[in-house]
Amino acid sequence: MKMVKSLLLGTAAGLIAVGGAQAADLPLKAKAVEYVKVCSLYGAGFYYMPGTDTCIKLGGYLRADAILGGAGDYGFNNSVSSANGGSNNRLTNYYYSRARFDLNIDTRTATEYGVVRTYADMVFSYDTSNVTGSSPSTISPSAPALGLYHAFIQFAGFTMGRTVSIFDAPWQSYPAGGPDTIPGGSNHVNGVNQFAYTADFGQGITGSLALEEETTASNGQSNLWNVTGFTASSAVNGAGAIVTTSAAANAAAALIQGNYGVNDWGGTRVPDIIGQVRVDQAWGLAQVSVAAKDLHPGYYGTTEPTGHPSDKWGWAVQGSLSIKNIPTGAGDVVNLQAVYTDGATRYNFQSLFPQSFFMFSGSSTAYQSIGFAGLADGVFGAGGSIDTVKTWGIRGGYTHNWTPNWASAVYGGYAQLKYGTTGKALICANFASIAVAGSTCNPDFNFGVVGVNTVWTPVKNLAFTADLSWSRLDQKYSGAITAPAISTAAKPGAVYELKDQNSVTMMLRAQRNF
What we know:
InterPro entries: Porin_alphabac (IPR003684). It holds the Pfam family Porin_2. One of its GO terms (molecular function) is porin activity. Keywords: Cell outer membrane, Ion transport, Membrane, Porin, Signal, Transmembrane, Transmembrane beta strand, Transport. It contains three helices and 27 strands. By secondary structure, it is mostly beta strands. The protein has a single domain, classed as Beta Barrel (Porin), CATH 2.40.160. The chain is globular, with a radius of gyration of 30 Å. The N terminus is likely disordered.
């Protein structure tokens, strides 16, 4: 027993000695753990970044889309990016799909000069492949796409970086949902680089000025047609480059795809100058926007000695109106806008609208029918000046909330584009080579979209949408043309009736916001 007791005491003494030595090595006081704290200064979802006075908020969404029918009216493979979108034959995709993840990061810091804010919005998408069966070597497999919609700093009323244009209505191109191709106003939902200042006059009244770089927007510039040499000796390929050839068919093929010349912009000189005044109060919103745009062309030919037309200024004006608290129900809203442009077509047929496209359908008098359209800010020919293109447009939508979980909407947009007398004559001189006797050349056109949708929100931040839209190209050509073959669309050389075209599209969407 004595032996056991001695062993226990000796072991305890040894442990105490070792423990004392370890304790002597420890700091006198452990460092306090820094916990993430809620930041209530800027609304829900903000937290202080540990060890700083900067608040941060993470958000975004995950979306799954399916587009059924139509010619890609929701911006997947529309007629400008896919010859098959408007071909309406076995090469045309009958459906498109998209998986998209959006992540945004918002940081804010209170300073003696006011709040310093940074905001970034990044999107990652996977879309249906654009397959051209007649040109298998050009098939591009589906690949992930990365987009940066917003990346800006705000300080003391200034906004510096990339975000939507101050010319836009707050709902962009979607007055009550709908496809990307609704005309009747501007849309920079994918962002545009800019330097802007906003003055707050109180009671919801603000005024803004901005310098914006349209070339940084998605398809930001409309066409500036140079028809010099656009005859049997030259043509425009799908990338907008001049292709020299002895075949007049190539120029004709480009023409009936809506390419009326070479898109001939010179280098950047002056950014677009934008002004806006807005009243945003409990009853709704009213906004007036104006834009000035420098049309800076390249050369008449391919070298400096050929000369060039002088620059010309285009402009646009837009009015937007949103009415809330209407008698039909809580949360219901009506959004309306109207726009007029002269040499600034993108502010009507906005950045996601195809700037050259064609659509085929059936005919009782010819092989098939065709409708095509080319949009532009202006047109010029050898030795001439820029003849600007004029447009006007309207769009609107009404959203009704049946219950907190169900909402429906109707929307529509309609716009007209008209070429000037000189520009029209230059385009029609080339059109004459393919026109059937008795046909009329007029590159002007109208385009309209109407649609309905229903959104079911079973739980907060989870929505399922079904959206049905009808689009119509009201083209002003009449008669028929003898068109050359278009290999990428599998269309043979034949007589085609010039005819208005229609498209019906259904979008199904599941989206989870966070």
